[in-house]
């Protein structure tokens, strides 16, 4: 019977293992159930699908004994249909096969990705300020920008409504009250504010983790900063404790703002972002700005991406969606928010920098980067030590030189300036600063090549960051004497910094991991060292310089800051060209972008190499030039539907999404995506042995009725590019013309080849950037 006992024992262990794997699958988790275009469903009340329809669907798959889970967390019913609820994996799987359901996916957690920036765009890059007054009188204040973010701080002077007229009649939104937010906090500038308490659903429970008391008020600052960058009112003498002083303003200072608080410091619920997009469209916004995205490491399918889903339906309703590209650069394949109906923005610097000077005891000085309001001076020097020389007992030297938490001996560190390196990228600059500060040091010098173009804000604690070359010299000095000393001076501002723009080191790069047949990012805009509105600082010691009042502005960097620059520019163009569709505005900003810096040389990256379109898209936006682009590429819903066909989605799902009876072409393949009428061209694969690949584009004349354009091609050596016809003649009866571009790569270099096709017509030059991967 011993074999039987062993069998029972093995069976018991196996059953435990099976249960341990099965049980987690049966724990209810927050899921999104996406059901396509709301108009594609038959049952509506006042244009919206009632909750009861979705509740009935839920009740069909949730057991009666768990009836408390038959509840909607979010209900989507305006621009698109669906809901979110607590579901087990098996229930989610069952729902995904239900007729009328396009996709079911777990609620993803997404992440949050000025005085000088607009003047920099206006003057240094070819937009002369003397040209702007004639447009000012035409700027209308009925353009509404919806900002989906962490909320808003309504008392900021950037949201004053002086000189702005009555709220547009098209506005259907609300100003939600909270425990610290009243309806009176809204005005003719900040016309709407919403918040969503149920930002995160917990696993295994029907309840949600919510803020104790909800409010649209921003407690992080991210939403306030982005909203004011896009559409903040003019504020004279704005600065961050004296740095970046000037007049702060948004790109469209007369536009209205509607704030949708869908995020907290921990991140953003995808289901809540979907709800915010649905609400914004219903409320009547013209443009939605989203400085948020999924992680580039875990990019999902388009139909599992809440921003891609919401933006698709926004485009259907004529609402532009502008998104940040992500902060995971400089590695390739890190760009996010890459659906063709999303306007994807990379980040650059402007002609202003912040430096914190390091003075060594031997008289040498180094211009490091960083923002600090320390009280150190030239007159007093402090002992200078390398982190590994002040390591705590039993701590590896490698951890101490990286200023790893718990690695420093406080007795050895106190009173010194500590030099740290960055061999552990997981330990941020903020953590290193806190480690050194907590060890009672005088200051920190960080040796790190990465992100030295992005000034870290260390408040009043002395901080400066240098690259490897300068760092090597500092360490050599420490090793050359027993009594090495140094001081770190308060930050000073460098104006008219050259070269600029430069692609920011953190800005996520293409090509897109989802499809390389669409060029992403689309454009680049200022995202480094941007001064904009901020929530008042905390009362923590060191957060406000001694003798200063709390600042209502802050300097931030990220593609989060670049995104609202494009939003503001798009709102500016929309205020002049009311009938232009989102794709026309997008095309205008793309085909007029600049690829040179303020030294009239090609834009570079932080490694001093000439930047390519996978880093900066088609170039830096030039809003005034975009007002008169000459020609535009209209990418309509037919193009986006063809994209979904070529990408491989089922005709059934596409019909649900688009409310059309579209039949996908029989020969649909991802290679055909290059043919949708996009303002740039990207080809994932061009084989050397194949015949020329032909791409079709159609342009619409938005300039003079009678106009002639001639094609000029700039292509790399070996790649043969021909345009047919190479002359476009527009007249009163001819407003749209198609042309073909052929690419032949037999003699081309392997890998991506970049170039441009420029249509020259009088004062207009219409750039189309191409990226062709030769194999």
Helix and strand layout, with pairings?
Layout: H1 2-25, E1 29-37, H2 51-59, E2 74-76, E3 80-87, H3 89-96, E4 103-106, E5 109-112, H4 117-124, H5 133-136, E6 144-149, E7 190-195, E8 200-201, E9 208-209, H6 222-231, E10 235-240, E11 243-248, E12 256-261, E13 263-264, E14 267-269, H7 270-283, E15 287-290, E16 292-293, H8 306-316, E17 320-324, E18 343-348, E19 352-360, E20 365-369, E21 382-386, H9 397-401, H10 410-413, E22 417-421, H11 429-438, E23 443-447, E24 463-466, H12 468-480, E25 485-488, E26 492-495, E27 502-503, E28 523-526, E29 530-533, E30 553-556, H13 559-576, H14 582-591, E31 604-605, H15 613-616, H16 623-626, E32 631-632, H17 637-647, H18 651-658, E33 681-686, E34 693-701, E35 707-714, E36 720-724, E37 727-730, E38 736-744, E39 751-761, E40 764-774
Parallel strand pairs: 6-12, 6-15, 7-12, 15-17, 17-18, 18-28, 21-22, 22-23, 23-24, 27-31, 33-40
Antiparallel strand pairs: 1-3, 1-4, 2-3, 5-14, 5-16, 8-9, 10-11, 13-14, 19-20, 19-25, 19-26, 21-25, 29-30, 32-34, 34-38, 35-37, 35-39, 36-38, 39-40
Helix pairs in contact: 6-13, 7-8
Output the CATH class name of the largest domain.
Alpha Beta
User: Per DSSP, what share of the residues sits in E-state strands of 2 or more residues?
Assistant: 25-35%
Strand runs, count: 40
The stretches of 5 or more residues where confidence is low (pLDDT under 50) are: 1-22, 41-48, 124-138, 201-212
Share of helical residues: 10-25%
- Which word captures the global form? globular
Q: Per CATH, what is the topology of the largest domain?
A: Rossmann fold
**Terminal Cα separation, in Å?**
66 Å
The oligomeric status of these chains comes to single chain
Number of helices: 18
Report the radius of gyration as a whole number of Å.
Answer: 28 Å
At CATH level 2, the architecture of the largest domain is: 3-Layer(aba) Sandwich
Provide the number of structural domains.
4
CATH fourth-tier homologous superfamily of the largest domain: Peptidase S8/S53 domain
SS class = alpha/beta
Chain-averaged pLDDT? 89
The major pleated sheet works out as: 8 strands, mixed
């Amino acid at each position: 019977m011993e074999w039987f006992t062993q069998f029972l024992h093995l069976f018991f262990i196996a059953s435990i293992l099976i249960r341990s794997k099965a049980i987690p699958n049966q724990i209810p988790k927050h899921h999104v159930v996406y059901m396509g275009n709301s108009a594609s469903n038959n049952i509506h009340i006042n244009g919206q699908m009632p909750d009861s329809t979705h509740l009935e669907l839920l009740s069909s798959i949730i057991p009666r004994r768990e009836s408390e889970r038959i509840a909607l967390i979010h209900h989507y019913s305006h621009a698109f249909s669906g809901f979110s609820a607590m579901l087990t994996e098996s229930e989610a799987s069952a729902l995904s096969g239900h007729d009328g359901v396009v996709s079911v996916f777990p609620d993803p957690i997404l992440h949050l990705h000025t005085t000088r920036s607009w003047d920099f765009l206006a003057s240094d890059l070819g937009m002369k300020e003397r040209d702007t007054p004639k447009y000012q009188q035409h700027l209308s204040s009925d353009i509404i920008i919806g900002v989906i973010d962490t909320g808003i701080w309504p008392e900021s002077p950037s949201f004053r409504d002086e000189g702005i007229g009555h709220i547009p009649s098209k506005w259907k939104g609300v100003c939600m009250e909270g425990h610290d937010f009243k309806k009176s906090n809204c005005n003719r500038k900040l016309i709407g504010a919403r918040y969503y308490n149920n930002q995160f659903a917990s696993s295994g429970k029907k309840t949600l983790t919510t803020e104790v008391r909800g409010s649209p008020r921003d407690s992080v600052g991210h939403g306030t900063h982005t909203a004011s960058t896009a559409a903040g009112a003019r504020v004279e003498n704005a600065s961050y404790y004296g740095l970046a002083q000037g007049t702060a303003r948004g790109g469209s200072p007369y536009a209205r703002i509607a704030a949708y608080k869908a995020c907290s410091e921990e991140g953003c619920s995808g289901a809540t972002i979907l709800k915010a997009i649905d609400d914004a469209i219903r409320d009547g916004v013209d443009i939605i700005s989203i400085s948020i995205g999924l992680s580039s490491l875990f990019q999902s399918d388009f139909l599992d991406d809440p921003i891609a889903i919401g933006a698709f339906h926004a485009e259907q309703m004529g609402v532009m969606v502008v998104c940040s590209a992500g902060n995971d650069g400089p590695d390739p394949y890190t760009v996010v928010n890459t659906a063709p109906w999303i306007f994807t923005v990379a980040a650059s610097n402007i002609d202003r920098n912040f430096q914190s000077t390091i003075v060594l005891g031997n008289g040498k000085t180094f211009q490091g980067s960083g923002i600090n309001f320390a009280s150190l001076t030239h007159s007093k020097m402090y002992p200078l030590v390398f982190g590994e020389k002040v390591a705590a007992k039993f701590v590896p030297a490698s951890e101490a030189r990286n200023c790893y938490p718990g690695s420093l001996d406080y007795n050895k560190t106190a009173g010194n300036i500590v030099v740290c390196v960055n061999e552990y990228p997981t330990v941020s600059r903020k953590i290193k600063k806190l480690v050194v500060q907590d060890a009672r040091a005088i200051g920190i010098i960080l040796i790190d090549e990465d992100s030295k173009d992005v000034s870290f804000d260390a408040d009043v604690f002395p901080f400066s960051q240098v690259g490897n070359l300068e760092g090597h010299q500092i360490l050599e000095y420490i090793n050359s004497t027993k009594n090495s000393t140094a001081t770190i001076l308060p930050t000073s501002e460098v104006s008219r910094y050259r070269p600029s723009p430069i692609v920011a080191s953190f800005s996520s790069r293409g090509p897109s991991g989802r499809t390389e047949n669409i060029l992403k990012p689309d454009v680049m805009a200022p995202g480094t060292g941007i001064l904009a509105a901020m929530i008042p600082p905390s009362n923590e010691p060191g957060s406000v310089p001694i003798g200063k009042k709390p600042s209502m502005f802050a300097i931030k960097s990220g593609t989060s800051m670049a995104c609202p620059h494009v939003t503001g520019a798009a709102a500016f163009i929309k205020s002049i060209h009311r009938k232009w569709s989102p794709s026309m505005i997008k095309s205008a900003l793309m085909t007029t972008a600049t690829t040179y810096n303020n030294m009239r040389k090609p834009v570079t990256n932080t490694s001093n190499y000439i930047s390519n379109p996978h880093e900066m898209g088609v170039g830096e936006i030039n809003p005034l030039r975009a007002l008169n682009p000459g020609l535009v590429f209209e990418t309509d819903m037919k193009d986006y539907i063809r994209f979904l066909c070529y990408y491989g989605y089922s005709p059934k799902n596409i019909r649900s999404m688009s409310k059309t009876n579209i039949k996908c072409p029989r020969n649909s393949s991802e290679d055909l995506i290059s043919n949708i009428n996009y303002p740039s061209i990207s080809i994932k694969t061009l084989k050397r042995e194949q015949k020329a690949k032909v791409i079709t584009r159609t342009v619409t004349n938005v300039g003079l009725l009678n106009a002639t354009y001639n094609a000029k091609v700039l292509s790399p050596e070996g790649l043969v590019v021909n345009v047919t016809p190479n002359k476009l003649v527009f007249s009163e009866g001819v407003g749209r013309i198609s042309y073909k571009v052929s690419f032949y790569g037999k003699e081309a270099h392997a890998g991506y080849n970049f170039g441009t096709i420029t249509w020259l017509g009088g004062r207009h030059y219409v750039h189309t950037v191409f990226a062709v991967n030769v194999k």
